[in-house]
């Protein structure tokens, strides 16, 4: 079995972070989201992975390399522009050949991995296996409709009137029959080749399309809120480890990781928290569910439920929370200005000003 990993896409919902960085490489708990997926594939016994890349191809290649660090043999497959998930299958035809494969969307996160799912697919080998999870708002997802026996009877992409609350998770398992299906469909109203349409083609053709409703944690890390939530979830499984320097005036409470080369001075860290290598925290408080990447500086500030990417500094700004701060960012206090009101008032106005 091979893997097809989707790492293209513009990441518009994560802008401005993704103006300069691939969305799959934004870190949670100081590790790129994409890396969790690659590790899950390797843990499931997959050894060969085709990685679909787009405009951020150079960055993905630099981060993943030949895949050996993950136990994978990686082949890169260029996609000129994001034309849909089924389009990715279409252009990967030569690479995939007649092998079964698992398709993994590189910005998705599943706690617990996919080993059991891959093993079950290998044993039973349906034509296609999809993963579903219940969501509060299914309008933003591909949605599955099941009959009374739990069989998949219909699929829609981002429906205006969803027929269920079962959203497709970004992991799919296929036999080679999917290749005929992606060739048979046309672009949707969004101008993309939708994987839901290809799956519907299989269903209509009498193919064996099965579903598994997962009860574990899953997130599509497409926006800031989801990134922070995934970061929180990963940090909850953190093991305490102090490899860096923490002076006697500092306090660390709970599941705190201070990487080698990091320095904590006259500060308080309340876990779960991870402080990256080469980072200095001085005269500050870093609170729960916060990850600070390598070579950052946190001085005279408070930080909680946030992600700070590498080579950034936060200096003397009071409290920051629920935030995603990019690379090479400087956060400092605004210069003091006189307090004043500037008014343009018409005749006979009445104005009340709090002083």
From TrEMBL:
It comes from Streptomyces aurantiogriseus. It holds the Pfam family NTP_transferase. SUPFAM superfamilies: Nucleotide-diphospho-sugar transferases, Trimeric LpxA-like enzymes. Residues 2-235 form the Nucleotidyl transferase domain. InterPro entries: G1P_thy_trans_l, NTP_transferase_dom, Nucleotide-diphossugar_trans, Trimer_LpxA-like_sf. This is Glucose-1-phosphate thymidylyltransferase.
